[in-house]
Amino acid sequence: MPLLPPAAPRPRFAPLRVARVDPVAEHAVSIAFDVAAPEHAAYLDYAAGQYVTLDARIAGERVRQSYSLWTRPARAAAEGLIRIAVAEIAGGRMSPWLVSHVAVGDTLDVLPPRGEFTYAAQPGPARHAIVAGGSGITPVLAIAADILAADPGTHIDLVLANRTPATAVLRHEVAALADATHGRLRVTDVYSRVQVPGERFGRIDEPLLAERFPAPGDIAHWWLCGPEGLLTRTEAWLAGRGIPTERVHRERFTTTGPVDPAPAN
Q1: What CATH number is attached to the domain comprising 81?
Q2: N or C, fewer C-beta in 10 Å, the chain?
Q3: pTM of the entire structure?
Q4: Do both 107 and 178 map to the same domain?
Q5: In a domain, 122, yes or no
Q6: Is the domain of 147 the same as that of 251?
Q7: Residue after which a domain boundary falls, among 114, 142, 165
Q8: Are residues 93 and 150 in the same domain?
Q9: Same domain for 136 and 247?
């Protein structure tokens, strides 16, 4: 009987130093971890859209939570930093602690990146669509940056739902990407709590999708990330227009981030 190849070593948590803490919205921060050392190479070997899991003891309780990486892998490698975005959730266990207590120089235990909601570069120009809500912007921001870097003829239409402009996580980074790519990223903001002149008010629903995407079949890939209700409405609308499921990529994003992976020892 032929010998089986040895199993790949199971990923394990490693202590990473916090290199930056930056505000990215009301009660939300970006936390950057220093992964420049050679022993942290696994943290730079990721695909746009993946997440890391943090492990911490908070108020005497061990808490694990996953947060998506919001920068594309090429930027992370150039900086020697991986970055997550955290929005404080009322009643949450980890997010309030991260937003209020974590500072530069602290060390947190972090699992290397994982996740199946990813983008692999494809040759040639194409049109992509992103529908995201709240903190669901974090993985698709990395995906959008990779998509736009893959071909100068590629365009993305992003429909982004938030409660207010002040609570729009990483909105300044979305604007910076749109500017840097000279309009190849087109953004439609939708706010549910306040009316903003020139922006949409309400929620992302079928009439808005039909208006924003009059020819959905012309779009090569759809990227959906946000609360379950948003994803369900968008998927139903796409299915009603005959969009093949293999062209629709989704990740459910709860109030605290993507679904946690199985615990790792």
Answers
A1: 2.40.30.10
A2: N
A3: 0.91
A4: no
A5: no
A6: yes
A7: 114
A8: no
A9: yes
**Residue 127: partners with Cβ closer than 8 Å, 6 or more residues away:** 154, 155, 156, 157, 218, 219, 220
How confident is the model at residue 3, as a pLDDT? 58
Helices 171-180 and 137-150 meet at what angle, rounded to 10?
Answer: 10
CATH of the domain at 183: 3.40.50.80
pLDDT digits 0-9 by tens, 137-159: 999 999 999 999 999 999 999 99
Same domain, 180 and 250: yes
Q: Evaluate if residue 1 carries a pLDDT over 80.
A: no
- CA dist 127 and 193 (Å) reads 31
Containing structural domain, residue 25? 14-114
Distance separating the N- and C-terminal Cα atoms of the chain: 32
- 159 with 250, same domain? yes
**Residue whose entry in the numeric block shows the structure tokens 């859209």:** 49
> Which of left, alpha, beta for 22 (phi over 0: left; psi -120 to 50: alpha)?
beta
Amino acid at position 58, single letter:
I
Separation in Å, CA 181 to CA 120, 135, 149, 156, 177: 19, 23, 9, 10, 6
The pLDDT of residue 172: 98
Please state, in angstroms and rounded to a whole number, the distance separating the CA atoms of residues 132 and 253.
9
Strands 185-191 and 155-162: parallel
The count of domains in the chain is 2
Q: pLDDT class for 11, splitting at 50, 70, 90?
A: confident
Contact 102, 18 (CB under 8 A): yes
Kindly list the distances between the CA atom of residue 205 and the CA atoms of 9, 162, 192, 201, 213, in Å, as whole numbers in the listed order: 45, 14, 12, 11, 12
Distance of alpha carbon 224 from alpha carbon 9, whole angstroms: 32
